[in-house]
Specification:
- The complex is a heterodimer of chains A (413) and B (118).
- Chain A is mainly α and 413 residues long.
- Chain A contains 21 helices and no strands.
- Among the domains of chain A are: 108 residues; 106 residues, Serine Threonine Protein Phosphatase 5, Tetratricopeptide repeat, CATH 1.25.40.10.
- In chain A, α1 packs antiparallel against α2, α1 packs across α3 and α9 packs antiparallel against α10.
- The chains are: A mainly alpha (413), B alpha+beta (118).
- At the A-B interface, loops of A face α3 of B.
Chain lengths: 413, 118
C-alpha cells in the first residue's frame, strides 16, 4: 500500500471511531439522533478530505467537535426560538467544550445509543441497521446490502426510526439487569452484522476497520455483561474468523476458500482466546445462535490439529442452527458442509428449496455455492451459468478472479 | 416528557373480571399515581362505548352515529396524563395500570408547543 493510501486508511479509522462516539455523545444530550448525525456529517466528510493530506490532528475529537458544535448549535437555534432553546444550546456548547478540552475523556455513550436503537419500541428488523448507521457511520446502501433489502427502502426506514427515537422519548441508557438479556440480542445481531461486513468485503478500503470496531464493541459488551453467554459466543465466533484472516488471501491478494487454506497461517493466539470464550459461554447456559456458529468454527479450526476437518460434526451443528434461525443463509452453509459428508448431489437437493427465495437470487454466495456443487456433480453447463451469475454479483475483485478461474477450469461441454 | 395514556378496554373481559379486586387494584393504582407519579396526574374514566355518539362532517352535511367511532373489540375507556423522563418510565406506568390486563394502554407523547416551531 502507498503511504498516501495508508494515511488515508488511518485517517478514516480515526474519523470513524470519533464519529460514532460523538454521535452517541450528542444524541444522548439532545435525543436527536438524526440531528447529531447531521451535525457531524460535515465534520466527518471534512476530516476524510483533509486529514490524509494534512495529517490526523492531535485531538481528532476536538477537531470534529469544533466543526460539529457550530452546526449543532445553529440547528437548535433554528428549531427552538424560545428561551428554553437558548439555555439548551448553552448547556450543549459548554459540555462539548469541556469534553473537547479533556481530549480522551469524552464519555463513550455508544453502548447507551446501541440500546436506544435496540429498544422494544423500535421495529425489530430495524434495530440492527440503526445501530450500524449511528455507531459506525455506515451508509444506508452498505447496510441495505448486508441485510438484503433495497437501499431506498432502508434509507426511508432509518429516517423514520430516528424520528421515532426522538418523538416517543426512547431513553439513551444501558437497561437494568432484568431487561438486559432481552435487549441484548438485537445489539449482538447488529455488532455481528458489522463484523460480517468487514469480513466479507476485505478488498474495500475502510471495511476491515469496521470489523475491528465490531470486535471492540463485542469486547465491550462481554466486559459489561460477563454473565451473557451469547456475547461471549459472538466474540469467540469473530475471533475464530480473525484467526483465519491471514490465510484468506495469497500474498498477491487472490482469494483462498476455507478448504484450501494453509492452516499454518492461522493465528493460534486468537484461536486460544476464542476456545476459552466458547468454553466459558457453554458452561454458563443453553446454546444460542452465536455459540453454535462459534462451535462450527471450532470444528473447522480442529483441522489445524487433526489434519482433517470433522464435517459430520459441522453438519450436526448446522442442523441445530437451521432449526434455531430458519435462515436461508444458514441453510446454504449447511448444504455446503453436507457436500463434504454425503456428496454434491445431496447438497444440491438441500439447496433446491432456496431457489424460490427471492433474497437468495441477489445473494452472491448462493450462486457461488451452487456453481461449485454443480461442477462437482458433473453438470458443467449449469455450473457455468451459476458461477457467471456469482461473478456478476460480486463486488470483490479477488473473489471475481477466483470465480473466473473456477469457470475456466470447468470441462467443456 | 409528557405522555397521554389512552386506556382501551375489552368491555366483555372487564365485565367478567372480579369487580371487587379490579376496583381495589384501580384504587391502589390511582393512589400510586397521585403520590408517586410526578407532574400531571389528572385523568378521567369514561362511560362504556354504548353511551357514545360519533359525529362526522362531510361537505357540510353532518352524520351522527349512535355508537363509538369504530366497532372494535377494544374501546376507548379513559385516559390519564404523566410527566416522566422517558418512554421506559411511561411503559412502567402502563404496566402498572390495571387496565393493561383488560385491554391495552396506548402511550402517546404530547406535542410540545415550544418545539413545534421548527
Amino acid at each position: 500500500m502507498t503511504a498516501a493510501g495508508e494515511a488515508s486508511q488511518v485517517a478514516a479509522r480515526v474519523a470513524r471511531d470519533s464519529y460514532g462516539r460523538l454521535v452517541a455523545f450528542l444524541a444522548a444530550r439532545t435525543r436527536d439522533v438524526a440531528g447529531a448525525e447531521d451535525a457531524l456529517s460535515e465534520a466527518f466528510a471534512a476530516a476524510l478530505r483533509m486529514w490524509p493530506a494534512d495529517g490526523v490532528p492531535d485531538n481528532p475529537d476536538a477537531w470534529l467537535l469544533t466543526v460539529a458544535r457550530r452546526r449543532q448549535t445553529d440547528s437548535i437555534r433554528r428549531r427552538q426560538t424560545r428561551t428554553a432553546g437558548e439555555a439548551h444550546v448553552k448547556l450543549i456548547a459548554d459540555e462539548i467544550e469541556a469534553a473537547a478540552e479533556e481530549g480522551e475523556a469524552i464519555p463513550d455513550r455508544r453502548l447507551a445509543l446501541m440500546f436506544a436503537c435496540a429498544h422494544p419500541a423500535i421495529e425489530r428488523g430495524l434495530r440492527a441497521p440503526l445501530i450500524l448507521q449511528t455507531i459506525l457511520g455506515m451508509t444506508a446502501e452498505d447496510i441495505a446490502a448486508a441485510f438484503l433489502i433495497p437501499p431506498a427502502t432502508m434509507g426511508q426506514r432509518l429516517v423514520r426510526a430516528k424520528a421515532r427515537i426522538h418523538d416517543a422519548g426512547i431513553p439513551f441508557r444501558v437497561p437494568e439487569t432484568e431487561e438486559l438479556a432481552g435487549r441484548l440480542d438485537a445489539v449482538l445481531d447488529a455488532i455481528y452484522a458489522a463484523y460480517s461486513k468487514g469480513w466479507n468485503e476485505v478488498g474495500e478500503t475502510g471495511i476491515p476497520e469496521i470489523a475491528d470496531e465490531a470486535i471492540w464493541l463485542a469486547r465491550l459488551v462481554v466486559s459489561l455483561l460477563p454473565e451473557a453467554p451469547e456475547a461471549k459466543g459472538m466474540l469467540a465466533l469473530m475471533l475464530y474468523a480473525e484467526a483465519r484472516r491471514p490465510a484468506r488471501r495469497t500474498p498477491d491478494g487472490a482469494y483462498v476458500p476455507l478448504e484450501e487454506q494453509d492452516t499454518s497461517l492461522w493465528d493460534d493466539s486468537q484461536i486460544v482466546v476464542a476456545e476459552q470464550l466458547l468454553r466459558d459461554a457453554s458452561r454458563d447456559g443453553p446454546s444460542g445462535r452465536y455459540q453454535l456458529e462459534a462451535a462450527i468454527q471450532s470444528a473447522h479450526t480442529a483441522r489445524r490439529l487433526a489434519g482433517v476437518a470433522n464435517w459430520p460434526v459441522v453438519v450436526q451443528l448446522y442442523d441445530h442452527l437451521v432449526a434455531l434461525t430458519h435462515s436461508p443463509v444458514v441453510a446454504l452453509n449447511r448444504a455446503v458442509a453436507l457436500a463434504e459428508v454425503e456428496g454434491p448431489a445431496a447438497a444440491l437437493a438441500a439447496v433446491a428449496p432456496l431457489a424460490t427465495d427471492k433474497r437468495m437470487l441477489g445473494y452472491q454466495p448462493y450462486w457461488a455455492a451452487r456453481g461449485h456443487l454443480l461442477a462437482r456433480a458433473g453438470q458443467p453447463a449449469d455450473a457455468a451459468e451459476a458461477l457467471t451469475v456469482a461473478m456478476g454479483l460480486t463486488t470483490d475483485e479477488a473473489v471475481r478472479t477466483y470465480l473466473a478461474q473456477q469457470l475456466a477450469a470447468l470441462p467443456r461441454a | 416528557m409528557r405522555y397521554m395514556m389512552l386506556i382501551h378496554h375489552d368491555e366483555a373481559a372487564l365485565a367478567a373480571a372480579p369487580q371487587k379486586e379490579l376496583w381495589a387494584d384501580y384504587a391502589a393504582f390511582n393512589e400510586a399515581l397521585s403520590k408517586a407519579g410526578s407532574g400531571m396526574v389528572s385523568g378521567e374514566r369514561l362511560q362504556p362505548s354504548s353511551a357514545a355518539t360519533t359525529v362526522r362532517q362531510d361537505g357540510g352535511k353532518a352524520e351522527i352515529l349512535d355508537g363509538p367511532y369504530a366497532d372494535a373489540k377494544e374501546q376507548f375507556a379513559g385516559y390519564f396524563f404523566i410527566d416522566v423522563p422517558d418512554l421506559d418510565e411511561a411503559i412502567v406506568w402502563a404496566k402498572r395500570c390495571p387496565s393493561s390486563k383488560y385491554g391495552s394502554v396506548e402511550i402517546r407523547p404530547i406535542v410540545d408547543a415550544e418545539a413545534k416551531w421548527k
